[in-house]
Amino acid sequence: TSVTDKAAAAAGKTFDYIIVGAGLGGLTVGNKLSGKGFSVLIVEAGPDLSWNPEVFNAEDRVFQSTTCNWQYPVLANNGSKLASTIDSGACIGGSTSINGMVWYRPTKAEVDRLETLGNSGWNWDSLSPNEIMFPTRYKSLRVQASIRPSMAIVAPSTPPFQQAIPFAFNGLTVGNDLSNRTSVVSASTSWTIWYDPVTGKNRRSSAADGLLWSPDQQRDCLTVIANHTVDRVLFSKDMTATGIVFGSKSAAKGKMSRAYAKKGVILSAGTLGSAPILERSGVGNAAVLKAAGVKQLLDLPGVGANLNDQPGTSTSALIAEAFRNDTSLVDSRNLFGPQISLVGIDEIWGTGASIYSNDLISPNALKSRAQALVDAGAAANIAGAEAILNTTISLIVQSRLPVAEVVAESYPSVLSAIFWPLMPLSRGHVHIKSADAFAPPAIMPRLLTDEFDQAVAIAVARRTRDLFSAPPFKDVVADAYLNPPIGPNGTDEEYLAWLSETTSGASHWIGATAMMPRELGGVVDAQLRVYGTKNLLVVDAGILPFQITSHTMSMLYAVARKGAHAIKIPKFIGNDDVFYPGMLRSPTAETTP
Ligand SMILES: Cc1cc2nc3c(=O)[nH]c(=O)nc-3n(C[C@H](O)[C@H](O)[C@H](O)COP(=O)(O)OP(=O)(O)OC[C@H]3O[C@@H](n4cnc5c(N)ncnc54)[C@H](O)[C@@H]3O)c2cc1C
User: Fold this and answer.
1) Which helix or strand (DSSP H or E) is residue 365 part of?
2) Is the CB of residue 101 below 6 angstroms from any atom belonging to ligand 1?
3) Ligand 1 mean position, distance from CA 270 (Å)
4) Confidence class for position 157, pLDDT limits 50, 70, 90
């Protein structure tokens, strides 16, 4: 494998495939295609930071670090610029170089819903979720990589949360393994890490670590160019993708180069990167392209719409001074300390859940929700908006999947409950503002604009505070209302005001190049091909039309694997496959390394 910063390695050259973005999707597909002998060029906007401990050392992970982070600017619902930014991986490895490393499987119900939304062949059986796992560098270390015994199941340091969480969420079953969940549980989780016996530390299993740097994954026919941004896709007259225009901002006068693809161009620039590339290439909504000064080649109004993330924030309580060194209570920033609970509408509202489910399934409510999305430019048309909303609603109401995730953590002076609605109905958009490849896109997430999402967030905020004022925390907490500083009788309006100030995306951005029928506003078909084009695919998180309850990574490795399959590699799953079944072992079966 050749990894370089030099445009000359590709300028004017022709490859079988060109992949845009060296993140989870791009590296997975690149690994598969080059593994079958195709010549592959991957162009990545960010640098190689594999040497940087903030990236490789899982235990020194820095939250919201500026390292390898686009920190995309973000717009409020009224169009004004917010002070907060959006985290997204900006180096080789993409977001897997900076993410939270939490890993568990999606459920059958939601995977099967991809097919009922009109994506033939996308179901539980064909995606083989029982084989969904992450790549790691050393096969021999795969058991340690899946989960460390010290944090297996419920981390020993978290029993107080285990005791308290069912108090806050009525009827919540305390389970032990999110990876194999069949219903709501409260548990620790698996991490995309591997244990390095040489340093005695856990290393991050990023897509780059497992698929690019790994000694047994080297290729003669794979070239990766770092520090070069892809501006646009080149098309022939019949809209066949023939290559890309790319360049580095620092090169003299931003000089751009071209590279050519015989068999295909694959966009894997992430949800917030691929839609802008399509738009700069003339593919998208007519009004957006006109405003940006880009000539439209293909009308595809769904590009950039349907943008979605889970709206996250956290409540916290102040621990009384006498208990701040109590290790049975405080996990001291233990990487494996957080305990995750997934809660459904029944655990949140009990018998009152029917008020919400009746509203969700009401045809009139559906119509006005869909109209609101179209009016906001968050859906291409009413039929598409209704189809997507209905999919999520049926997962909430019929399948009774969890609607919120609560991550409980304890620090020396505070107990904290980070949470987000898991299956939001709110949608936003991401578009270009100009044809400048180096200008950030205009991102308007419109988080918590749907009343159901608001209701879930308000209720979970209240419930997590019940948790702090109940046993076993009651006697050790000095102030159960530290954040938000809203007392026990806070109104919905007070909570909503706090939520709108503090909420930001959970970093699971999806949907801006959604896979669904074109007439519903879809951007790619079930083979991940961009409608109306030839030899152009999108393989990244943007193709997921609705949220998955398992964080995105596990699902996306399956998407990328299926994407590579769609490119028709003969004998795709074989001995050379890098996804090791050993990862699937139940955490209970782990042994000390
Ligand atoms: C802070 C954070 C925490 C997260 N935590 C978790 C977690 O704990 N568990 C989990 O399952 N998921 C988590 N995720 C989500 C998960 O990592 C992402 O969903 C996943 O990596 C997305 O894969 P992707 O291929 O779509 O994009 P990415 O992996 O982001 O890759 C896109 C790549 O394209 C490059 N690029 C963008 N534009 C261009 C351009 N114009 N030219 C060339 N290159 C370009 C980017 O620099 C990037 O390297 C987290 C994400 C973040 C950011």
Assistant:
1) helix 363-375
2) yes
3) 6
4) very low
> Which pLDDT value is given to residue 470?
80
Smallest CA-to-CA distance from 326 within 429, 472, 470 is with: 472
Alpha-carbon separation of residue 188 from 61, 145, 269 (angstroms): 18, 15, 31
ipTM over 0.85: yes
Q: What does the pLDDT average to over 8-15?
A: 98
- Kindly state the percentage of the chain with pLDDT values over 70: 83
CA distance 326 to 323: 5
* Single-letter residue type at 356: Y
Q: Which of 587, 248, 195 is nearest to 437 (CA)?
A: 248
Closest CA to 535 of 210, 229, 265: 265
Query: Does residue 22 line the site of ligand 1, with CB under 6 A?
Result: yes
**Residues 496-527: tens digit of each pLDDT:** 999 999 999 999 999 999 999 999 999 999 99
- List residues bridging with 265 in a β-sheet: 18, 536
**244 touches 258 (CB < 8 A):** yes
Quote the number of domains for the chain.
Answer: 1
Residue 318, in any domain of the structure: no
Work out the burial of residue 451: count CB atoms within 10 Å of its CB; fewer than 13 is exposed, 13-18 middle, 19 or more buried: middle
Ligand 1 center to 377 CA (angstroms): 24
pLDDT tens digit sequence for 17-47: 999 999 999 999 999 999 989 999 999 999 9
- Ligand 1 centroid to residue 268 C-alpha, Å: 9
Residue type, 570: P
Q: Which domain holds residue 264?
A: 1-75+87-149+201-310+507-587
Beta strands in 31-130 (DSSP E): 40-43, 72-75, 81-86, 102-103
Q: Is residue 368 part of a domain?
A: no
Question: Ligand 1, atom 23: nearest CA belongs to which residue?
Answer: 24
C-alpha torsion sign, points 153, 158, 159, 165: negative
CATH classification of the domain holding 296: 3.50.50.60
Q: What is the pLDDT of residues 278-295, one digit of tens each?
A: 999 999 999 999 999 999
- Whether 504 is in the pocket of ligand 1, judged by its Cβ within 6 Å, is no
CA distance 391 to 425: 10
| 563 lies in some domain | yes
Question: Is pLDDT at 149 greater than 60 in this prediction?
Answer: no
How far, in Å, are 17, 34, 495 from residue 220 at the CA level? 14, 8, 57
What pLDDT does residue 203 have? 84
How many whole angstroms from 309 Cα to the centroid of ligand 1?
13
Residue 480 lies in a domain: no
Cα-based distances in Å from 337 to 191, 210, 346, 407, 506 = 12, 25, 27, 10, 19
